[in-house]
């Protein structure tokens, strides 16, 4: 099955999307020291680990719908003891109060407006949501960027995203463009695994590998134009 083949490729990867420790530390420089943090769609715990290291007094919960990502995160984060907990679950169903909800590269599963509406009652007073979302870096977008995001409807500029945040009843406190190295952190380990799996791959896995390699090729064609915007937002 294609789902099995997809997870075969993505199993045991350090992260499941673009990102870098500097992105997390930048967000915390805006927010300070939140005491209760939820990492929504935490994957194997790459950002959860940085949050735990940077916030030694915080209680942190990672939530992900995929069981083997949670198992990988538990192995990775066991050194932090009981102050970091992981659970298999839907990011629609978070339990607060949380000073920070972190969601890197996964808000598209719900949509910006839906997620911010769902998470408003989860936030403690003064709490914030930090999320990353695809954006075009120019208007109109470059042909390469348009081709990269062709399968993801609704991508707009940073101004378009700010308007969506405002429409959801939030204000944008700060933003940071995620480009270049953060994407390499994701793609290079993934492409190395794809190369190892290529030998002897059956038809389902081969198709998944083809898609991943085609995506990587599209990114390589325009690494300075393919971006996420990391947004720090809070209820207005």
TrEMBL record:
SUPFAM superfamilies: S-adenosyl-L-methionine-dependent methyltransferases. Pfam families: Methyltransf_25 (PF13649). Keywords: Methyltransferase, Transferase. Residues 37-127 form the Methyltransferase domain. One of its GO terms (molecular function) is methyltransferase activity. GO terms for biological process: methylation. Gene3D superfamilies: Vaccinia Virus protein VP39 (3.40.50.150). This is Class I SAM-dependent methyltransferase. The lineage of its organism: Bacteria, Pseudomonadati, Pseudomonadota, Alphaproteobacteria, Rhodobacterales.
């Amino acid at each position: 099955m294609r789902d099995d083949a997809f997870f075969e490729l993505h199993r045991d990867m350090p992260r499941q999307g673009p990102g870098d420790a500097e992105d997390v530390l930048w967000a915390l420089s805006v927010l300070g020291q939140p005491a209760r943090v939820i990492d929504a769609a935490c994957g194997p715990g790459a950002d959860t680990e940085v949050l735990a290291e940077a916030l030694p007094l915080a209680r942190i919960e990672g939530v992900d719908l995929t069981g083997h990502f949670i198992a990988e995160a538990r192995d990775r984060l066991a050194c932090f003891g009981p102050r970091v907990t992981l659970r298999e679950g839907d990011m629609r169903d978070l339990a607060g109060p949380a000073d920070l909800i972190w969601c890197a590269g996964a808000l598209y599963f719900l949509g910006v407006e839906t997620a911010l509406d769902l998470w408003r009652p989860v936030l403690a007073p003064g709490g914030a949501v930090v999320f990353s979302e695809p954006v075009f870096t120019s208007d109109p977008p470059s042909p390469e960027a348009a081709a990269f995001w062709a399968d993801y409807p609704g991508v707009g500029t940073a101004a378009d995203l700010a308007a969506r945040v405002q429409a959801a009843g939030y204000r944008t406190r700060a933003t940071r463009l995620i480009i270049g190295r953060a994407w390499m952190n994701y793609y290079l380990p993934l492409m190395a695994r794809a190369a190892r799996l290529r030998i002897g791959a059956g038809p389902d896995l081969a198709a998944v590998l083809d898609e991943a390699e085609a995506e990587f090729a599209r990114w390589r064609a325009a690494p300075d134009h393919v971006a996420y915007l990391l947004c720090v937002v809070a209820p207005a």
